[in-house]
Write a structure and sequence with these properties.
The protein is an alpha/beta fold. It contains eleven helices and 19 strands. About 25% of the residues lie in helices and about 20% in strands. A hairpin with a 2-residue loop joins strand 15 and strand 16. The protein binds pyridoxal-5'-phosphate.
Length: about 350
């Protein structure tokens, strides 16, 4: 069969910015080294593009959530550098971990027992110090199944590091106390925002995700972290509409005058959700406001500012993450991870 022609939407990835962001976060981590959260297909950007860049920048510690995410990362880095945050939920998961060589993060006594029953070996251990998600509680530290683990990295996760909250110091103190109770080789607490809390939070290894991909979790990262993802779409049709005509589902936009409009190949199936309604795309410096509702595969633009733009021309969706979050009410995490599979990532 012949290959499909290139799509009419693309996600340009700035590899240099991604590498720079990792190096910046590594530097901000002080004596600790930075790893990388590469779960959810590198936060939607594409593991096959991002993992090699992070590896070449110097990253040696990669975190995914699911066992099903290991293979796409292991195609580019040694499997023992990949940790699986959700840990083993079955004997099958343990067997897969052993076969492929990825490292499970143990999150409960039950997972510890399962890991032992299936041969055990080096693992990481997550302690819950207050987010109440995954991880053993500090009170469970003395349990024999926990004490018997061969813990490479003892981890915890901050709940409120993007704010100056009393919770940060409380979680850090709880983590420091639990470190005395569980034998381990290294310790890791900080995500992207946690790196901004200072070297006290960095320990041996930090685990940034969002900021690698251009997110600004705390104001101090602004101007330091560079934008990585640049979505673009082609105009697939232009049309002229008369005053009083409407655009899109439920006719929510009515033309106040005769207008030239353009349809771009981008929609909520691509992760450009209806929350973008009222925003604008750009061609160079020219603003092209979105008209009406975002459809599944299409967005309609007002081309008044760019009368020369025709079918086949590419336009940009401004994607500075803090600005886009402000514009849409979506989180910076949601803005990244919802990018669909139809984009050509390049
Ligand atoms: C997702 C995740 C990270 C990365 O968090 P960011 O806020 O994206 O930097 C780090 N650690 C754990 C346990 C995670 O689940």
């Amino acid at each position: 069969m012949s290959a499909a022609p290139p799509p009419t939407l693309r996600l340009r990835l700035d590899h240099e910015a991604l590498a720079d962001n990792w190096r910046t976060l590594d530097r901000m981590s002080g004596d600790a080294r930075a790893g990388a959260a590469v779960k959810a297909n590198c936060y939607g950007l594409g593991a096959e593009h991002c993992v090699p860049v992070l590896r070449d920048a110097g990253c040696r510690d990669f975190f995914v959530a699911h066992w099903g995410e290991v293979a796409s990362v292991a195609a580019h880095v040694p499997p023992e550098q990949i940790a699986v945050l959700h840990g083993p939920g079955s004997a099958q998961d343990c067997a897969y971990a052993k076969a492929i060589g990825a490292v499970p993060v143990i999150n409960s006594i039950r997972q510890a027992e399962l890991w032992h029953e299936n041969g055990g070996g080096p693992c990481h251990l997550m302690v819950d110090t207050g987010i109440n998600r995954l991880g053993i509680s500090p009170q469970e530290a003395g349990h024999p199944a926990i004490q018997r683990l061969d813990v490479a990295v003892l981890m915890s996760h901050l709940a409120d590091a993007d704010r100056d909250s009393v919770m940060n110091a409380r979680q850090r103190a709880s983590f420091a106390a639990v470190r005395d109770l569980i034998p381990h080789r290294e310790a890791s607490l900080a995500n992207s925002a946690g790196i901004g809390l200072g070297h006290d939070y960095a320990y041996d290894l930090t685990r940034p995700g969002l900021a690698l991909y251009g997110g600004v979790p705390r104001p101090q990262f602004a101007g330091i972290v560079r934008q990585v993802a640049y979505p673009q779409a082609a105009i697939i049709q232009t049309r002229q509409i008369a005053a009083g005509e409407t655009v899109g589902y439920n006719a929510t936009f009515t033309a106040p005058r005769a207008m030239r409009i353009g349809v771009v190949s981008l929609g909520y199936a691509d992760g450009i959700l209806r929350a973008w309604g009222g925003a604008a795309l750009r061609h160079g410096e020219r603003r092209l406001p979105i008209l009406g509702k975002v459809s599944m595969d299409m967005i309609v633009l007002d081309l008044s500012a760019a009368p020369d733009l025709g079918e086949g021309e590419w336009v940009d969706l401004p994607y500075d993450l803090p600005d886009a979050a402000q514009q849409t009410g979506l989180s910076q995490y949601e803005l990244l991870t919802t990018f669909g599979h139809r984009f050509l990532r390049e």
